[in-house]
UniProtKB/TrEMBL annotation:
Organism: Pseudomonas japonica
Residue span, NADH:flavin oxidoreductase/NADH oxidase N-terminal domain: 8-365
InterPro entries recorded: Aldolase_TIM, NADH_flavin_oxidoreductase, OxRdtase_FMN_N
Phylogenetic classification of the source organism: Bacteria, Pseudomonadati, Pseudomonadota, Gammaproteobacteria, Pseudomonadales
GO molecular function: FMN binding; oxidoreductase activity
Protein name: 2,4-dienoyl-CoA reductase (NADPH2)
Amino acid sequence: MQSTHSPFSPVAIGPLTLKNRFIKAATNEGMSAGGVPSRQLALLHANLAGGGVALTTVAYCAVSRDGRTLPNQLILEPASLPHFRALTDAVHANGGLASAQITHGGCFTFIRERSTRRPLSASGGFNKIGMMSGMFFKQAMTEADMQQVVADFAQGARLAREAGFDAVEIHMGHGYLLSQFISPLYNKRRDSYGGSLENRLRFPRRVLRAVLDAVGREMAVICKYSITEGTRAGNSAEDGAKIARMLEEEGAHLLVLSAGMNAESITTMFGSSFPKENRVQQKNPVIALAMAIQRMTDPVVEFRELYLLEHARKVRAAVKMPLAYLGGAQSLSSIEQVMSEGFNLVAMGRALIAEPGYVNKLANGEGRSNRCTACNRCVAMMYTPGGTSCVLGQPGDAELNRVPAAGAL
């Protein structure tokens, strides 16, 4: 499939029309003290919109308190709506649209306070993620658990709509709950939700259907998933193509093609190794331990542009629906290549953290390359008082990061 579309041309995603083909990918910013967006988070996304991004994604909006991965994670609940509304208003005022990434961590969690005895997952038993938090066991979800989580995702989507978001992105990748069903690394069930890839997709498809029924006529419904898990025992890119066909069949408006797993294959996700600086600055012992384990288990990988393109091509060949390429697009030439190969949009994370105005820079002919070096040090910056920022620029404002988006300074 070939495309002659300019990356600066409009595109329809379900009921939504984007002014261009650029999406700010979801990245954890560390700008949500108390579980609500901070002034700093609203400013970050407003600046991305003002910099030309058509759709900016607010990462890791938990659909329930049990669904949180980390303390202070954003939660979509009625009390948080004024702060989300302040963020979406700021994005709209700067000419952009906003997407809420809705998620549930499952057993990938560091939150001990929960309504269930153990963290929920596709399967029960030993919880390898719990080695870092002292929660050594997880419990398999029952039908009642599934019904509750499906309802939580649908309600989260409705709350996102009420908060002024234009789209929701269901997180099905990287080892969180829906990924735990999709992945053979986590799903060992012997009922209709385990075994074959079709069975492993059954619960994520239920979630997608419920979200589409709740908001699909008014909002774009996007799915982000790992097209390859980057490990021998995990899903391959061929599996990723089959997953895409099932999500297309269920009615998703757009797929964001990520890769890798947080615990097993982080370099597959980022396309390059994490530097020493990401570890020695960590004061949080849990995070420091997690990074140390990743250093010992992950190979050294040098960054290259479009590092996921070979895998993404298999998905593009398998479906007709809109796809957003994600993975190392850091120059106009690589963006144009993605467009020429039939991908409808490009999602960018680190490059837009480094240069929030990059899209306008390209559109105005002011340059072609991005200053991001893929050093991955921005990932560790989320644990600093000002939240995520590029180490080549200015740190985030710690004072603004302490104030809720709709609160007074």
